[in-house]
Write a structure and sequence with these properties.
Length: 321
Amino acid sequence: MAEAQVPVTVLTGYLGAGKTTLLNRILSEQHGKKYAVIVNEFGELGVDNDLVVNADEEVFEMNNGCICCTVRGDLIRIIEGLMKRKQKFDGILVETTGLADPGPVAQTFFTDEDVRARTRLDAIVTVVDAKHFLGQLEQGDEAEEQVAFADVILLNKTDLVGEDDLKKVEGTIRGINPLARLHRTQKSQVELDAILDKGAFDLNRILEFEPDFLHHGHHHDHEEEVTSLAFSADRPVNPEKFQKWMGALLQLRGGDIFRSKGILAIAGAPRRYVYQGVHMMMDSDWGAPWKEGEARSSKLVFIGRNLDGANLKRGFEDCLT
């Protein structure tokens, strides 16, 4: 019998957004679950030392049974080490302090066969500082890319901003990433089951959570900033053509395409074909069955920088039967 895969949550966000507060909550709350937490630098992160029961070089026990490790080495090596530990845990959290782009961390769970067999990427969670986000967008790419990658977004510090400004921030976030679920929070207070073990990245469960994202589809032809583009079609998709086109596209342009997701109708197939990608990595599988009499349309979304809308639209249309 195959062992159950351990869910992995990648936690990202701009400095000062409230990631550490969230992490300390997960590590201190008596939620009855055990988490392994992988952090970039234990000291720099500011995990509350009162939570630490005993500390050896790389693994720290927490007083609620969770464990904490530092990534001084390779993420794959750390995860393989965790898998050998006697006390099994309910999930792994990877905190990406100082990493602008959570993409490479997410890709680890696609590329390494061993890691992929034993873990599954559950969600990328981004903490956003409601007060400073719009200013951070002007300082560089980090804040924007972290939002682009997210499956779940905590819009934090909402008590420091008025409703009008909050709506403006939410509108900007939606312009970058219409797919992520958004929670308004103060001091990173959120029900942990809203962010942990959600299956938000899981191909088979994507459909349960997908908002009707086509209403948000921005059709910019060519823009510098990070945007999202959505396409839909009522004709079925040829799966071989789609795989070939998407493979070539991601090899060529994958550096600029942060996330891509699709729910596709294949001629004669009783189930939806579900696709998702992170940069150059892609994965696809059969999803939920079509309901009796349901309109079978295909939807494809790209989130990235310098997206060429006309070219992507042409490529998608060439895959239709």
